[in-house]
Amino acid sequence: MSPIRNTEWEASLSALAGGSIQAYDVIDSTNLCAKEWARDGANHGDWVIAARQISGRGRLGRTFESPENAGVYMTVILFPEEEKIPLLTVAAAVAVSQAIEEKAGVRAGVKWVNDLILDGLKICGILAEGVISPDGKRGAVVGIGVNLKKDALPDSLAKIAGALDGDIPRDSLAACIREKLVSCVNAEKKRLIETYRSLSILTGKTVNYCEGGVWKTGTATDIGGDGELIVQDSEGNFHALIAGEVTMHRE
Question: Taking a C-beta distance cutoff of 8 angstroms, is the pair 45, 78 a contact?
Answer without folding.
Answer: yes
